[in-house]
Design goal:
The protein has 130 residues and is mainly alpha-helical. It starts with 6 loop residues before the first helix and ends with a helix. It folds into 2 domains: 7-99, Alpha-helical ferredoxin (Fumarate Reductase Iron-sulfur Protein, Chain B, domain 2, Orthogonal Bundle); 104-130, no CATH class. The longest helix is centred in the last third of the chain and has 14 residues, at 84-97. The chain has helices spanning 7-18, 30-33, 45-54, 64-67, 73-77, 84-97, 110-115, 118-128. The model has no long low-confidence stretch (mean pLDDT 90). It has 8 helices and no strands. Helix 1 (7-18) crosses helix 6. The structure holds iron/sulfur cluster (2 copies). One iron/sulfur cluster binds at residues 34-37, 45, 68-74, 84-85, 88.
Length: 130
C-alpha cells in the first residue's frame, strides 16, 4: 500500500476484495476483545476498521494485518457478521500487490531457516510474499 491511493479508495478496495461492508461495523469491540494476537498489534481490529471507515488508515508499516493469525475468532464474535479475517487478508493482498514482499525469504535469519519446521516456512511465504 505504498502507492498514491487515498483512504476512501482504500476502503472501497478492501470492501471489494473482502466482500465485507466496512461501514456496517458499529464499533462494539467484540472482535478485539477475543483476538489472541491483540497484544502484538499496533491497531486493534475494531480500531483498524474504524480508521478505514473514517478514511484515516495509514497503512505504511501497519503491523496488524501481518500479525493476524487468521484464527477466525473475531468473525465468529462479530454481531454484524463481518468477516474481519477477510478484511485483514484484503489489506495484506493490497500491500503485496504493490510489488513488495512483507518479509522475503532472503530476510529470514539462517538459524530460522535451519530450525523452523518446513511447513511453517511455507505457510509464512504464502502469507508474506507476493
Ligand atoms: S482472525 Fe486475526 S484479527 Fe481476528 S481474532 Fe484471529 S488473530 Fe485476531
Ligand atoms: S465485532 Fe464487528 S461490529 Fe463489533 S467492532 Fe468488530 S467488526 Fe465492528
Amino acid at each position: 500500500m505504498r502507492d498514491g491511493r487515498n483512504s476512501s479508495q482504500l476502503r472501497l478496495l478492501v470492501e471489494q476484495l473482502s466482500q465485507q461492508s466496512i461501514l456496517a461495523c458499529y464499533q462494539c469491540g467484540c472482535c478485539s476483545a477475543g483476538c489472541p494476537m491483540a497484544p502484538w498489534m499496533d491497531a486493534l481490529p475494531n480500531q483498524l476498521i474504524r480508521r478505514l471507515q473514517l478514511g484515516r488508515l495509514a497503512t505504511n508499516g501497519l503491523r496488524t494485518p501481518w500479525v493476524c493469525a487468521s484464527c477466525l475468532t473475531c468473525g465468529v464474535r462479530c454481531p454484524k457478521g463481518i468477516d474481519v479475517p477477510r478484511v485483514m487478508e484484503a489489506l495484506r493482498t493490497l500491500e503485496l500487490r504493490s510489488g513488495e514482499d512483507h518479509v522475503g525469504p532472503s530476510e529470514l535469519a539462517p538459524e530460522h531457516l535451519r530450525s523452523l519446521p518446513q511447513i511453517a516456512l511455507v505457510a509464512h511465504m504464502r502469507k508474506a510474499t507476493g
